[in-house]
Design goal:
ATP binding, about 600 residues, alpha/beta, eight-stranded mixed sheet, 26 strands, nucleotide-binding, Rossmann fold
């Protein structure tokens, strides 16, 4: 199964010190060193067999050693890419660390991907081995592999069994059980010693993110990039005092943020990662887990605010007045004008009667609610902050480890995305684009030198910078993002969606002549469509056919026929017959706003 060795980019550092300032050169090396330090400390908590279960650091390392030895026995070699697809669970973490510990490269992929999406990632990455969470998912990945060159190895976290409605595995491809890998003879001490020799510049993972052309690109993140993220936030976390406290994890582990922060960064700071059972269990989990840190996309905070307001509406008039007054005075403390004498006297009472109860519903010991993945509306963050909940906004990209900046609970400027992390340089180019430098920056896009050259190129000072594609400004050391330069959509849930891909699929249907999709900062994707001549009555069927080929996050939630075609004459088409997307979005902003509701 040996493939081309993944590139290693080591940067010079002083003796005894890494370029990142980290005491470790690799992610597995960091985990192994911490496990030696406190083997009995809880690392992961997860729901299984009707109860919360815990995996301790020492047991985690032993499981990693067994799975790593099994992968080697199966022929996985340094530089080989291994696709990892599954829900948040401890086997995911074990597999990820095992892959990296033997010098291979993890390719995390969403469970919601279509077969075509999986086929593209398999083909582009050259992955010949897949670890999947369930037999049904394994069967889908085998089908994708059949269209992309095949597989040599398929491992399933759940016990293998029939997958109803799924095609059988290709002849000669066996579905291996996790129990087989977990029981393979291993030498944990030897693996730990090997991990200490992994260079910080070795490629750790390929994170696939959508580009403007629709085909996801593999972001090459070396160990150095994610270790730099860890060093960049360590001071913040130490000041928060989170060691020994739980972190409630919502985002999928294939998400670049959760992969870095949930798998490595927060555990390394002594936090126990608790995998949520889903949004429907949220209220109960806040009370049962009492998390110190929660990270989520803005959509979750929208849902929480709606639920809180619905509960307030059910209360009596005195309770509603107290809540509204607590909210109003909290916002005045944030935005001014200053509270008057009477309001200052009332505020401690509001804190006891309202804000303490709100904090109690979130477990009572929250130190940070972190929002990322998409723009956080200042009105939304103001709602939580005014009620005493420390909601802070951060900013990042997969291409940068992925965390670039974050606000501080004690210095929270909610209309910004905060100051850059320690070790991160940021500047604004003459055209307004945000540029970033530092050890957190990717090595480039896998097998895509043109895209790499576009993203990593000289800035105004002649040095190489990551061109983020976001337009913004830096004032008083804090970054504010004002627009997106790159032409793809980031939904309210933080999912990246390529409009070019969706519009191309829609216009490939005979019933649809022109299409523009939208959804930046919204819960889902909507579309304006121009029907082909005489095809108005059949457009719904065309949209349904397209949706059937798309992943959940890409599907068209609502659509409307445009009042007329996009033409050169009305300014909505270029002379080369390309739709002016921004002009269409501006022209029909009111129509789109109605579709979002």
């Amino acid at each position: 199964m040996s493939g081309t060795e993944a590139p290693t980019r080591s940067r010079p550092a002083a003796a005894g010190r890494r370029a990142t300032g980290s005491p470790w050169s690799s992610l597995p090396g960091m985990l192994f060193a911490l496990a030696r330090r406190h083997p009995d400390r809880p690392m992961l908590r997860y729901w299984r067999d009707g109860a919360w279960q815990r995996l301790r650091w020492g047991d985690f390392v032993l499981q990693v050693a067994h799975v790593a030895a099994w992968l080697r026995h199966q022929g996985v070699a340094p530089g080989d890419r291994v696709m990892l697809v599954g829900e948040s669970r401890p086997e995911w973490n074990v597999a990820d660390a095992a892959i990296m510990a033997i010098g291979a490269v993890t390719v995390p992929t969403y469970t919601t991907n279509t077969i075509a999406d999986h086929a593209h990632v398999l083909r582009d990455s050259g992955a010949r081995a897949v670890i999947a969470s369930s037999p049904a998912l394994a069967a889908r990945l085998a089908e994708a592999a059949a269209a992309s060159g095949g597989l040599d190895l398929l491992l399933c976290m759940d016990p293998p069994g029939p997958a109803p409605g799924e095609p059988p595995l290709p002849p000669g491809l066996a579905l291996h059980a996790w129990a087989e890998a977990a029981a393979h003879p291993a030498d944990a001490a030897l693996l730990m010693a090997e991990a200490e020799q992994i260079p910080e510049g070795r490629l750790a993972c390929l994170i696939y993110t959508s580009g403007t052309g629709g085909a996801p690109r593999g972001v090459m993140l070396p160990h150095r990039a994610m270790l730099a993220n860890r060093e960049g936030v360590s001071g913040l976390l130490e000041r928060l005092g989170v060691e020994g406290l739980p972190y409630l994890s919502f985002l999928p582990l294939s998400h670049s943020y959760e992969h870095t922060v949930g798998c490595y960064l927060l555990p390394s700071m002594g936090m126990e990662v608790v995998y949520s059972r889903g949004a429907d269990r949220l209220a109960a989990e806040f009370e049962a887990i009492r998390p110190a840190v929660v990270t989520a996309v803005p959509r979750l905070f929208e849902v929480l605010r709606a639920k809180m307001l619905a509960q307030v509406e059910k209360q009596g008039r005195p309770q509603r007045w107290l809540f509204e007054r607590a909210l109003a005075q909290g916002l005045r403390r944030l935005d001014g004008p200053p509270l008057g004498p009477a309001a200052r006297l009332l505020d401690p009472l509001l804190d006891r009667l309202v804000r303490e109860k709100v904090r109690g519903r979130f477990g009572g010991r929250l130190k940070a609610l972190v929002s990322g993945g998409a723009r956080l509306d200042p009105d939304l963050s103001g709602f939580f902050i005014a009620l005493g909940l420390p909601l802070i906004q951060g900013y990042g990209q997969s291409e940068a480890g992925p965390v670039i900046s974050v606000n501080l609970p004690w210095d929270n400027h909610r209309r910004t995305v905060g100051p850059p992390l320690a070790g991160v340089a940021a500047r604004i180019a003459p055209d307004g684009e945000l540029l970033v430098r530092g050890d957190l920056v990717m090595d480039g896009y896998w097998n895509n030198p043109a895209a790499t050259a576009e993203a990593l190129r000289p800035g105004p000072d002649g040095a190489t910078w990551l061109h983020t594609g976001d337009v913004g400004r830096i004032e008083a050391g804090r970054i504010t993002i004002t627009d997106r330069k790159r032409d793809f959509i980031k939904t309210l849930g933080g999912d990246m969606v390529s409009p070019a891909k969706l519009e191309g699929l829609l216009m490939a249907e005979p019933e649809i002549a022109q299409a523009v999709v939208a959804g930046e900062g919204q819960p889902g994707i909507v579309a304006l469509l121009v029907a082909a001549e005489g095809m108005q009555a059949r457009m719904a069927a065309a949209v349904a056919r397209v949706n059937a080929r798309l992943s959940t996050i890409e599907r068209i939630r609502r659509w409307q026929e445009a009042p007329g075609p996009f033409t050169v004459e009305n300014g909505l088409l270029t002379p080369t017959m390309k739709v002016r997307r921004r002009a269409v979005l501006e022209r029909y902003a009111t129509t789109l706003d109605a579709l979002y509701r």
